[in-house]
Structure formats: structure tokens, C-alpha cells
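Q: Okay, next protein. This is Phosphate transport system permease protein PstA from Streptococcus merionis. I've checked the sequence twice, so it should be correct. Can you predict the 3D structure?
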Amino acid sequence: MHAKKVDKLATGILYTIAGIIVVILASLILFILGRGIPHISWSFLTSQSSSYQAGGGIGIQLYNSFFLLVVTLIISVPISMGAGIYLSEYAKKGRLTNFVRTCIEILSSLPSVVVGLFGYLIFVVQFQYGFSIISGALALTVFNLPQMTRTVEDSLRNVHHTQREAGLALGLSRWETIIHVVIPEALPGIVTGIVLASGRIFGEAAALIYTAGQSAPALDWSNWNIFSVTSPISIFRQAETLAVHIWKVNSEGTIPDAVQVSAGSAAVLLIFILIFNLSARYIGQTLYKKLTSAE
């Protein structure tokens, strides 16, 4: 009887703690959305930002955020896939493998501002890329690579060993088994990890202040020269993202409607991050159902 009372008490405490956390998070989300949504309009989402006059938008910053996200994923996904496959399928147990995993753990715990300073010293100064999209994308790759590598490795490790044995029994080589059997089976977890990492990239600010820059030059949509600073597809131009724009508006406050712009930008950023997180769950569950139904 005493054990049952203790169990009920412990369960009640855990539910209470979980409820408090949910209420805090929900209150924070509702506060940001309620404060910012009234300031969101089509003009706000598409027009150019203003430095000294009221009525500016976030069109260029929003585009820069998505463009930087795409460039970062193009760089980081192949590297994380290769590293995850090696650690899961080829790496032998030993000091070297343990050292690599330890380094991944250390890198995954680095503050984003430290990664930003590293990116500034290496990509902006040493490689002479300057404040640019490529500098920001490389810094974000360093920032997200450990987490994405662990996601790929864990997803591949969760595939049952009988799947590998079945592929080898059919005469497939080890590499063909990984490509045609193991990776498709682990795809829901991999895709979910990539989408969650996309939300993390989209909302990052500290690492980009020192690498991608704090200005958003006007874009010439008729200019498709990849090396031009006004080209929308150039990776060598400065690109203030939405998260950096929020920080800049709050820190400088040179525009009369800084509070409204900051609130609207924060709401847009939060909406997209929520979309990334919810779509990650949906995509993962959909892929899992398709794979299980196909079996």
C-alpha cells in the first residue's frame, strides 16, 4: 500500500512538472505570436527593410535566411551522411573511433558565438571570403555537423542487423546493402534529423553576425552573376538573415517602428521554426508508415 502511494505521488509530481513546462512554453509562444502577428502583412513580408524610416519589411532578410539554409544543407548533408555511414557501418571499435565520437560530442556542445568567432577567423579572415553567405554556411556546417552526424549514425544503427544479413544473402556487396537496404530503412530518422537541423539553422543568429554580415543589400533579380554582390544567387555577398535582423533592430533601434518590426519578425521566425519542427514529425511518421506498409 505504501509503495502505491509513493508511486502515485511521484507520478503526480512528474505530471505537474511536465504541465508547468508546457504552460511556460505555450505562454511564450502565444506571447510572441500575439504580439507580432498583427504587424505581419504581405507588404511586410516582401518589402525591403528600412534603416531610418518607418514602414520597412523583411523581404530580403527572409530570402537570405532560406538561401543560406539551402547552401548550408548542400554542404552539410553529404558530409554528415558520409561521416554517419562510416561511424555506423565501417568504423571498428578502438581508441580512434572513441576519439572521433568524443570530438563530435565536444563540437555539438560548443556555443554558437564561439563557432561564429571561429568562422570569422577562418572563413572571413584566413580564407578571405569576407562577410558572405559562403562564410555563414561553412560556419553553420561546423555548428550543425556533429548533431546531423549523430542523427545519421543513430538512424543507421537502429536498423536491425537482419536487414543487412538479408542484403548480403542476396549477393549484394556491403556498399550496395548500405545504399539499397540500410539507408532506405533509416530514411525516416535521417529526414527528421535534417528537417530539425533546418529549423536550427533558420533561427541561428550569433554564428552569422560574425560570418554572413549585418547588412542586406538590395537584390537585382535580373542579375544572375554568381560573383555579383547584388545577385540573388551569389554566395559571396553579405546576407543579413531574419534572426540577425531581429538582433540588429533591437540593438540599434534607429527606425521609429523598431518595436513593431522586431515583434513581427520574431513572429515570422517562430512560425517557420514551428513549421520545421511539426513537418519533421509528420514527414518521419509518413515515411515510416510507407516503409512498414511496403514490407
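A: Here is a summary of the prediction. The chain has a mean pLDDT of 86. The radius of gyration is 23 Å.
Q: Noted. On to the next one.
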